Amino acid sequence: MEEVNKERLIALGDPWVSRINGGLPTLPISELPDAETIAPFDEPVRLVDDAGETIGIGLPEPNNGLFRVLPCHDVDTPLDRSFFVARLERALELRRRLGLVDEEGAFRLVNSEGDELSGFLVDVYAGHVLIHTLAPDHREIVTLLADAIREVLGPKSIIAKVRPKGDISTGSIPFDVLSDEPPPKRIEVTEDGVRYEVHLTGGLNTGLFLDMRETRRELRRWCAGKRILNTFCYTGSLSVTAILAGAAHVTSVDFASGVLQWTKTNARLNGIADDDRRLKYVRADVFDHLKTSRRRDQRFDVVILDPPTKTTVPGRRWYLKSDYDRLVGHALPLLAPGGLLIAAVSSLQSRPEKVEQQLRAAAREQGRRLRLVATPGLPPDFPTQMIHPEGRTLKCYFLLVD
After folding, report:
1. Quick check: is 204 in a domain?
2. Is the pLDDT at 276 greater than 60, yes or no?
3. pLDDT at 41 (0 to 100)
4. Whether residue 285 is found in the same domain as residue 333
5. Helices (H), 104-206
6. Structurally, how many domains does the chain consist of?
């Protein structure tokens, strides 16, 4: 795996050459000229332009029908530990410039093509490293990447998971331990002075969405003295942030009892007792809770909508892509005039124009008017390529509702 076979190459013309040079992260196998001449797709290949100059290395993902593109312009560059060390050092320097690298913090070290390592995500939680790869085809590459991480970062532990296809947010995910010892089951991290508990060895998600850091920061500006409804609260990072920022009351709603207990844990880590009357925990289907709150004529100053891509509630069919406007429509009547709706969507499938169309449709249906006041997006440790807007997965809107 350390050498890229120079005889196995794919010669490309425009528009693919200009797209790859511009940061395009993937190359569909179906678009390749004479693809059958280099089958089977079982090892890295060299990507060259019409003049035979190397423009990248292609990592095959036959199950996904594509090559991952690692930009490279030297025909003799081996795909070895030094290859990954160079890219990791560049990525780490950016995070150091951002002030994110410390013993208790959490940050993304590698964000796929944004750090010229398409198909790989590397997150760091208080010195413990979690690698996500998007296909099971790259185990040898992951081993090289882990070796490079040890050299560059000196982490406490390293594990790797393969992100399953589709929208899977619950259940355990198998992982490989790539260090002498696995990470502890529970790890505490600090972000902007707030403490959170994360679990690296459980499911797909760890308990803290690092891509929501800017949303948590923006939320602090709108909390003082406010009544807040946090739906799909998950482990309560937004609820805890709001209380610490001076919210008068926060209602946290989720159908999963386990994450509500996790929310209480995060509150306790920050000196908020279980019986603190400023916090209310509700185990319920969010749609049912919104309807019940409306019947009771309840009003909130801030409503947070950060739903999963599909429901996990038995007996209910709901999909983010098609039903988001219906969710927003149930939430808008609960906002007092001048209240704030925080609408967050994190999905590859939901483009900004579609989300905004759904928001407008819901407001029109409810006879309300939306004023956009902030759009906190991905934090700077989640760089993306301009040529690949799909990489900007988070869409978040702070909307005043009149």
Report:
1. no
2. yes
3. 64
4. yes
5. 139-153
6. 3
